[in-house]
Amino acid sequence: MLDQFIYKPIHPLPESGEISAKSPSNIALVKYWGKKPIQIPTNPSISFTLTNCFTKTTISFKKSKNFSFNFTLKGLEKPSFVSKIEFFLERIKEWCPYIFLYQIEIDTENTFPHSSGIASSASGFSALALALVELEQKITGMSNENKYLKASFLSRLGSGSASRSLYGPTAIWGQHKNIPSTSDQYAIAYNDLHENFKNYQDTILLIDKGTKKVSSTIGHELMHNHPFSKQRFSQANSNLESMINVLKNGDLDEFISISESEALTLHAMMMTSNPYFILMKQGTLSTIEKIWSFRGESKIPLSFTLDAGANVHLLYPLAYKQQVLDFIGSELIVFCQNQQYICDVVGTGANIISASYA
What we know:
CATH topology: Ribosomal Protein S5, domain 2
Number of strands: 14
Radius of gyration: 20 Å
CATH architecture: 2-Layer Sandwich
Order of helices and strands: EEEEEEHEHHEEEHHHHEEHEE
Number of helices: 8
């Protein structure tokens, strides 16, 4: 099943080189919550890929008898990140043995602030994976299609949602019996979008930039014995099929219904797990109520979604951008920490910025 990811060199290894890749974060419309070993989702998900919120990662490498790596964030040492990278490299060793024939310098930077409620693990691991597989393509001559598939596969081993960041404008991760080519091992691109969803906007309200009380990893594990897990997995599969139809036919009312229900269901699962927890803040709830009132009065198709945190993603068509920004300025900015929010738009996925070899 995974034969296409086996390392098959046909060219000599470069002596040294430097590769830069960038990959965006993404926001799930149908959420996955719960996973099996190793990084296998208990239900499929679909996401919008972002544009402005991305990670740029540069790897510099030279052949060596002794493998080593060094990690920096904008040139500065970040010891707290090293163990995560080390764990990731160990996980992908079977699939990328060439990495361990080099000394590697990894430098990365985000276009969005840390702890801003945007998944830096998704953009970070996918950017690193794409840079590593770009080197593999040099050695093996693999196709571009397989390069992105393998990068998605590797990204998943670092962060499940990272598998979706390789593709845009939308990506599906997780096997669904009625959707061809879907897989638990990697994400696939979904491009059949109605005109209503072209250039769709995502404005992220930073309600709370603090560290979450519970990590996503722990939250996923709590689904194993959750009293409503089977019903939730069935709901997600059904919602995914419905969302694909919506993205094809452009039904904005149904898009709002599914995406908001998915966001609230995600948090309902957290509030009914054992132990239970609440990640929404007072500002989150106040923002949601304001959105509902605004939509009812203005008839503007503004909706929200949430990740596993307090911050609110406002989703709406480009045609209504100014009205929504005016609404944020007059009604919602009071709920944003330091009055901060980030404007983004649905994008095209990850890409290689530059690659050079010696």
